[in-house]
UniProtKB/TrEMBL annotation, chains A, B:
<dbReference type="GO" id="GO:0000976">
    <property type="term" value="F:transcription cis-regulatory region binding"/>
</dbReference>
<feature type="domain" description="HTH lacI-type">
    <location>
        <begin position="11"/>
        <end position="65"/>
    </location>
</feature>
<keyword id="KW-0804">Transcription</keyword>
<dbReference type="Pfam" id="PF13377">
    <property type="entry name" value="Peripla_BP_3"/>
</dbReference>
<keyword id="KW-0805">Transcription regulation</keyword>
<dbReference type="GO" id="GO:0003700">
    <property type="term" value="F:DNA-binding transcription factor activity"/>
</dbReference>
<dbReference type="Pfam" id="PF00356">
    <property type="entry name" value="LacI"/>
</dbReference>
<dbReference type="InterPro" id="IPR000843">
    <property type="entry name" value="HTH_LacI"/>
</dbReference>
<keyword id="KW-0238">DNA-binding</keyword>
<dbReference type="InterPro" id="IPR028082">
    <property type="entry name" value="Peripla_BP_I"/>
</dbReference>
<dbReference type="InterPro" id="IPR046335">
    <property type="entry name" value="LacI/GalR-like_sensor"/>
</dbReference>
<protein>
    <submittedName>
        <fullName>LacI family transcriptional regulator</fullName>
    </submittedName>
</protein>
<dbReference type="InterPro" id="IPR010982">
    <property type="entry name" value="Lambda_DNA-bd_dom_sf"/>
</dbReference>
Amino acid sequence: MDSDPTRNRAPSIRDVARLAGVSHQTVSRVLNNSTSLREETKQRVQQVMDELQYRPNRAARMLVTSRSRTIGVISASGYQYGPASSITAIEQAARAEGYFVNTVNLDGSDRESIEKALNHLLDQAIEGLVVIAPQVRVFNAFTEMKLSVPFVTLQSTGTSDHALSVDQIAGARLATRHLIELGHRNIYHLAGPQDWIEAEARMHGFLTEMSENDVATTAPILGDWTAEFGYFAGRELLRVRDFTAIFSSNDQMALGLIHAVRDAGLDVPGDVSIIGFDDIPEARHFWPPLTTVRQDFAELGRRAIALLLSGGVSAGDHAAPELIVPELIVRGSTRAVSR
Amino acid sequence: MDSDPTRNRAPSIRDVARLAGVSHQTVSRVLNNSTSLREETKQRVQQVMDELQYRPNRAARMLVTSRSRTIGVISASGYQYGPASSITAIEQAARAEGYFVNTVNLDGSDRESIEKALNHLLDQAIEGLVVIAPQVRVFNAFTEMKLSVPFVTLQSTGTSDHALSVDQIAGARLATRHLIELGHRNIYHLAGPQDWIEAEARMHGFLTEMSENDVATTAPILGDWTAEFGYFAGRELLRVRDFTAIFSSNDQMALGLIHAVRDAGLDVPGDVSIIGFDDIPEARHFWPPLTTVRQDFAELGRRAIALLLSGGVSAGDHAAPELIVPELIVRGSTRAVSR
DNA sequence: ACGGTGCATGTGAACGGTCACATTGGGCTT
DNA sequence: AAGCCCAATGTGACCGTTCACATGCACCGT
C-alpha cells in the first residue's frame, strides 16, 4: 500500500522530533539555537535533521512570526551598469544578513506600473524596500504614498531622510571645474532627461560651478542617457562649433559624442574635450580613454541595506544620511584648451 | 483600553467574512474567484476587502498549498549587460505569470558558494530555478546535484535538455566567416576564460569555420572578458603583428583591443579588423563602430520562464530546446584585407 | 526534610489561509 | 406533492512553525 502519509510530504519538525525522541518544541529550539539546551540533545536532533535532510518550512515560520525576511527592490532600467551594480551589492549584503531580495523592474514611470510593482512586492510581505528609480515622478510617488514599510531611495539628491545617494552636485562640480581649470570657457552640458533627479542635480552642479567661476553658460541639452542620443546631439552641436568642451551627464552619451566628433573629422581631445560621468568599466578603454567622475554604485547598495536593516527609515525623523563622495578620474579625453 | 486584539493585526479572511456577513470560506472563494458564487455576494465581499485594504497573507496560502510561486535565479556577474538583460526579462515574464523572482549572485565559482546560493533559494522554497552562470564547473555542479526543482541553465551549449541558449557556435562561425570573406587569412581569436561554456563554444565555432575554409589557425588566447585584458592582450599581440584580423569573444575585450591597436599608432580597420560578440548597446558607438554578433539576451530570459512554467524540465526526458539564432551586425571595425 | 530556584523539556494553542465535506433551499421531474 | 438535484454557502480540520505557559527534576540553603 502506498498510503503512507509521510511518503510525499517533506519532513517536518515533528518528524524530526519523533525520530530524535524529543518534543517538537525542542527541535524548534535547536533551529533557533536557543540557550538552555543540553549539548547532547542538540547534537542528536541535529543528526536526525541531517539524515532527513530537513529544511524548515519558511511559510510556516513566516506565518507565525509574521516576518518575511525579504527586502524588495524596485528598479527602473535594471540592465544598466549603475543600477545593476547596486542591485548586486544589495543582494549580497542582504543575503549576508539572512534576508531575501526580490527585485521588480518597472515597465514605465507612470503611476500605474509603479503601483503594480509595489503591490507585487507588498503581496510578498516585504519588510523593507529599496527604490532605484531616480525619476522625479517616481520619487514623488513614493514619498507621497505613505508606505507602511521602511524604504530607501537610491540615486537621488539626498534631500530626504529616505534618500541615499552619491553627491551628484559635487561630482558635477568636479567635472566642470576640471574643464575650467584646463582653460575652457565655452562649455556645453549634455544633461540627462529632465525628470531624472540625478540629471537635475548634475545640471545644477554644472551651472553653479560655472557661475562661481564667472564663465558664461549656454542652456544644457536634455538627453536620454543613450550613446545614440549623444551621437546625434554631437552632430547637431558641431554644426555651429562654438565650444571647446562638453560635460556629458553620463559615460554612454559621452561615447556617442566622441563618435560624432570623430565623424566630423575632428579630434578628441585635440579639438574638443569631453568628460563623462559614472566611470563604467569600459570607459578607460574608450578611444581616447574617457575622463569621467566615478561613483561607487556598490557602496550605495551596501549602505541601502545597512540603513534599512538598522531600521531607522520608517519613522521619518532622522537626519539625511551622508552622501557618498564621487571621484574625478582624469584620462585622455580632456586637454588644456589650445589658443 | 487598547487591548483590542484586531488593532495591530492585518485583517484576515475571517475579519472580512464577519463584516460581510458570510463565512470565511466564501471569502476564500472570492479570492480564488471560484464559480458558483452569487454576483451580489461576491461584490459585497469585494467591497469589504477594499474598505479593510485586505491583502491575502502569502505565508498562510503558501503553507497550505505548499506552493511558493517563486522562481530562483542564480547568476554570476549579474552586473554585466548580458546577464542583467536576461534577469530583467526573466523578472518581467515571471511577474506577468504571477510569479516572484529571487535572484542570488554568486560570489565565486567554487562549490561552496554555489551550494550556499542554492541553499538560500531552497530555503525560500522556490518552484523553479534559472541558472545564469555559464562556467563549466558551475554547470556540472548543477547537473550533478540532482535538484528537486525544475531548472534551466542559460547561456550554455544546449547539449542538455536543461540548457537554453543562443547558438554560440553558429555565432562564432558567422563572425569568423565574415573575416574570411573579407579576405583575412591571419586571424587571431581572443577567447573567453577556459572554463566558460560560451567561451569554449565560440572557440569551437571559430576553429571549425577556419578549418572548413582551410585557413591555418594559431592558438586562441584565453582572456577574462574584460576590456582591460583585451588591451594588454592587444599590446602583446602587436609586438609580432603577424595578423590582419582578430575575433574577440566579447565586445568588451574588442574595445580593449581597439585601444591597444590605436596606442600602437595603427588603425582599425585600416591595419587590423576587429570583430566582437554580444552587441552591447555601446558597441555601435565605439570608434570605429564595432562589427559584432548580436545575441538576444532578453529573449533568452523570456524563454527560460516559458520553459520553466510549462513544467517540462524536471523529468529530464525531453528534447533539447531550440537554440536562439544570433545575428551578424556589420559596422565599421572590419574591412577587406589590403594587399 | 522542605520549599525555592532555575535549567531542560513538554503541551496545546495560535497564525491565516485552503481543502474536503456537510448543509440549505429553490426549481424541476414525475 | 414527494423526491431529487444542484447551486450557494457553511463547518471544521489541517498545513508546519513559534509562542506562552506548564512540568519535571536536580540542587541549594536552612
